[in-house]
Design brief:
Layout: H1 20-24, E1 31-37, H2 40-51, H3 58-68, E2 76-79, H4 84-90, H5 94-105, E3 117-119, H6 131-138, E4 142-144, E5 152-160, H7 164-175, E6 180-188
Parallel strand pairs: 1-6, 2-5, 5-6
Antiparallel strand pairs: 3-4
Helix pairs in contact: 3-5, 6-7
Length: about 190
Amino acid sequence: MPMASGCVRCGLPGPGPVCGACLASPPAFAAVRAGGLFGGPLADAVHALKYGDRPAISRPLGAWLAARVAIPDGAVILSVPLGRRRLVERGYDQAALLADELAAAAGRAGDRRRGVLVRIRETAPQVGRGRAERARNVRGAFWATCAVEGREVALVDDVVTTGATADAASRALLDAGAIRVTVLALARAE
């Protein structure tokens, strides 16, 4: 079952079609499509994937997401890259695993690309930060190769909260020549 209607840009629930934050400062991405709102069992699953050393649950979560969101036709499928320090600590990149499984479940494994979007500087965790602080934290943290030039991009992440990380990553993709970025996430925070 799709999420309740809301802002067509960031996906925040509300009367729509565009929220005040997106009107005041439009994000670089065209839309957010999320499997559901962050909370309950979905939040538990995200926490298990991210912090519970449970990379194997990326398979059912990717299949679940594939059943709930549409990957744009012809889009290259990328993931928001984890910083090197957190990758070493965690041992895996949860968004990359999720993108792999989403692409496979949707029959689009051939559209999945790695190494196209790169985190070029470490950032502090976003948890507990407000909208403006999150935006400052990730500004300029990403770089993309020209492999996205003239292409639409489906950018996969686990959770979209304020959209700051998705926005910073999308700006790097658009700077590299992508024509449009749609964010696909397991969950959207309210």
